[in-house]
Write a structure and sequence with these properties.
Layout lengths: L5 H23 L12 H4 L5 H29 L4 H23 L6 H28 L6 H27 L3 H20 L2 H4 L11 H7 L3 E5 L2 E5 L2
Antiparallel strand pairs: 1-2
Helix pairs in contact: 1-3, 1-7, 3-4, 4-5, 5-6, 5-7, 6-7
Amino acid sequence: MWLWALLPVCMALFGTVGIWTVFAVSVTNGSVNLTEGVPYISECGTYTPQSCLFSQVCNICSVLAVWIVVIRFQQVKDFGDHGKANVASIVLGFISSVGISVLGNFQPSVVQSLHLLGTFLAFFLGLAYFWVQLYLTYRAQPAKDRCYAGPVRAICCILCTVSIILMAVLHFTGRYSAAAICEWILVMLFFCLFGLFAAEFRHIDCHQLTVQKGALEHEHRPSTIEINGYVTNALS
């Protein structure tokens, strides 16, 4: 069902529009001054009223990211498992998704330590998640869109790695405006990487949970979970 491809696309579009809306509001009400340099994203979302909007954007993106991570994990598992790499992907994806919510709800002007923790989880573990997904792109099915999804994902991962390194170096050397530019580029690339899951999600036939009633009432046999058109066993 190609409609599942809309999930990562909607997440990418919503996050992009939401972040730039926060930026526009902060510039409009004078919370940030562009003549002093480019602000960090979190700096734009520090002050009210845009701080409320920033928190909601991060929370919704966090939920959508978890949803995408879980579906992608199950899709790879249904097509052949790929063991530790697939398990690592869901762990990294879940933790980084939580980090999105943490950095959005704890502004640096209020609780800086938690904000930095959320930033680390979202950026660094999120980058690790996408590198694992790049590996799975060439090792797991479906492979119909691998010819273009793989190179695009690889380019985005490389650019993200360069951006995050430059952001860290520039920040610690006092070039905050340049570091902020790298952060904006990094976040936009992350949204592109999430949106790219549409290439795999368009091959999903269905996504449902079915429990055998008789197994629960009589023999307590393993229930069956039917996801993406495949049936697998699970403990009841």
